[in-house]
Amino acid sequence: MVRELNMDTQRQNFWKEAIKKEAYVRLAWHQKYRDNVSEDDQTQATEQQRTRSKRFQDMVPKPPTRSLTLPVLSYPKRRQPKLEVVAPTTEVVDPNLLLVEMRPVSPGIRKMLYHGFTKEGKGRYQYLQARTIKKPEEKYEFPLTTSWEYGWHLDDVVKDFWAPQFGRSRIVRDTFYRRNGILYEPITA
């Protein structure tokens, strides 16, 4: 059915009413003439469905039958070492210490937090500025978000690279000059 582009509120309400009216007419017809529909037609229809479904089941190939028991393997027995009984320790490990994501702040930077006000550029403001100087690798044990994984421990990789002496000259040499054609070294007369 083609979609009509000029569907305004009035037109939509017309369609709703038409659909409801059609459903009502179908229901009224069924209530009026349901006694005239013979039961033989209904039983014949269900019988046809049964034969049809049986035919389809016969068409589907059966899975091959095989035993579902696993073969029994015998391994040589190993000697079990005797476990020593260890007395429980009295030290109670705090479970929250194992869940620490951030390394502790150094005492010097923590003291900044308590000196001055943020409005003056001291206190919390100065503390946060000092904390941003450290890289996330130094502040955290592992990357907390997936976006941190892209630059995590990038300093180890960057140490191997350095800028060329004359800026873009390396790119020009690698991309413009060909090995079998123009020579890189200029001809001096």
From TrEMBL:
Q: What protein name applies here?
A: Protein ATP6V1FNB-like
Annotated region (Disordered), positions in chain: 36-68
Family annotation (Pfam families): SPMIP1
| InterPro entries membership | SPMIP1_C
Q: Which domain of life is it from?
A: Eukaryota
- The source organism is Ciona intestinalis (Transparent sea squirt)
Q: Domain named Sperm microtubule inner protein 1 C-terminal: which ranges?
A: 77-186
